[in-house]
């Protein structure tokens, strides 16, 4: 009953229990005085002087200084950079690269403006030359597409009698084979 | 987070001051908000923000006591005001001292319910105990306070 009395004073008893206690209070003056004493003590506690808070500004400053968790600061930025790199590499043509990663002949067909013509009989020699120079040759429709380092360009032109003004093909040299 | 600090700092500070004393209240209140900042993503709104913060404050107070062995004493506040008569001042000083002498369990329920105004259910959530335990602790805390005060 005593535990219920404090809860009753605090308004924390369920309705049916509160009703029973109210009836008991009506019939028992001593219990009523007990309830009053609990109320008085609770009121006195609530009226105790409160300490004046200090340190709010320091807390705000500390929150501003505190490095937030890695995943909340750097990771999104790193993820964004990574995504950007993937998108850019997927959309852009190889720039200055003689062996593009993931080169797809069907998608690249017709993309490069640098075209050379060599006799079909020299096809094998051309392929071997490029590969021996560290380059790559892929089939590209009826012709070939050759990727090779810039240092190979001048010797290649001389060796296969290509035009002097033929620029180094950043997107691979499209080779047309003629009989 | 600044808004949270501005809205709740006073309550957290006062709870810490009553729980562990003025000397470490500021540091502990600050640590409470730093912890809350890290944990804010895990706050699911199952309790009020104030109740959640007081739960963190309670843990920080307990950690401070473990670390520094702080022994809560009556607050070093000026209990007298110009309008108080002498008898009232004595009562309030005695009450503050009696509150400080309560066991940790009893003092916590009194601070949370009587001074912070939390319901039994909210106190139970902060302390992670059943509501019935809160009810029982409050009853015994008041018995002890009245015994100390001779009331």
Write a structural description.
- The termini of chain A are far apart.
- Chain A has 179 residues and is an alpha+beta fold.
- Chain A contains 8 helices and 4 strands.
- Among the domains of chain A are: 2-46, no CATH class; 105-178, no CATH class.
- The radius of gyration of chain A is 43 Å and the shape is rod-shaped.
- Helices cover 53% and strands 12% of the residues of chain A.
- In chain A, strands 1-4-3-2 form a 4-stranded mixed β-sheet, with helices on one face.
- Chain B is mainly alpha-helical and 151 residues long.
- Chain B is built from 7 helices and no strands.
- Chain B is globular, with a radius of gyration of 16 Å.
- The model of chain B has no long low-confidence stretch (mean pLDDT 84).
- Chain A binds chain B through residues 2-3, 5-7, 10, 12, 37-38, 41-42, 44-51, 53-56, 58-60, 62-63, 66, 68-69, and chain B through 1-2, 5-6, 9-10, 13-14, 17-18, 22, 25-27, 29-30, 33-34, 37-38, 75, 77-79, 81, 91-92, 95-96, 99, 110, 113-115, 119-120, 135-136, 138-139, 142, 145-146, 149, 151.
Named CATH architecture of the largest domain in chain B: Orthogonal Bundle
List the uncertain runs of chain B. none
**Most extensive interface between two protein chains, with residue counts:** A-B, 31 and 45 residues
Helical content of chain B stands at over 70%
Distance between the termini of chain B: 45 Å
Helical stretch tally of chain A: 8
For the largest beta-sheet of chain B, the strand count, sense and barrel status come to: none
**What is the name of the CATH topology of the largest domain in chain B?**
Rna Polymerase Sigma Factor, Chain: A
Counted beta strands of chain B:
0
| CATH C-level class of the largest domain in chain B | Mainly Alpha
Shape of chain B: globular
